[in-house]
Amino acid sequence: MQDASSSPMSSEVTPASADSNGPDAAESVVSTHVLVPIEQVHKLRELARRTRIHQSEYLREAVEDLLAKYGRLSAPGDGQ
What is the number of alpha carbons within 13 Å of residue 78 lying toward its C-beta? Predict the structure, then answer.
C-alpha cells in the first residue's frame, strides 16, 4: 500500500532541467505525473517519432492551449 505522499494523484511537483527542445533554461520547469489512456500514449509517441518533436513539447503546447481556452493563461512575468 502506498502512502498519500507517493500517490500518482499527488499535487507535489519536482524541479527538472529543461530539455534542448523545451522552455528556455532560465525558465522554471517542473516534472509532473499524469495518467493517460494507453491509446493516447501510442498516438503521441507515433506523432513524436514521425515529426521528430519531443512528446514533452506537445504536452506543454496542449497545456498552454487548455489554459488559454479557459482564460487562465497569464502573461509571462506577471507572477501568476
Answer: 6
pLDDT tens, position by position, 10-20: 455 555 554 55
Cα–Cα distance measured from residue 51 to residue 36, given in angstroms and rounded to the nearest whole number = 21
d(CA 12, CA 33) in angstroms, rounded, equals 9
Q: Which whole-number Å values give the CA distances from 2 to 6, 9, 12, 38, 45, in the listed order?
A: 6, 12, 15, 23, 29
Residue 19 corresponds to which cell in the numbers above? 530539455
Strand partners, 14: 31
Q: Which three cell numbers stand for residue 78?
A: 506577471
Q: Give the span between the Cα atoms of 35 and 51, in whole angstroms.
A: 23
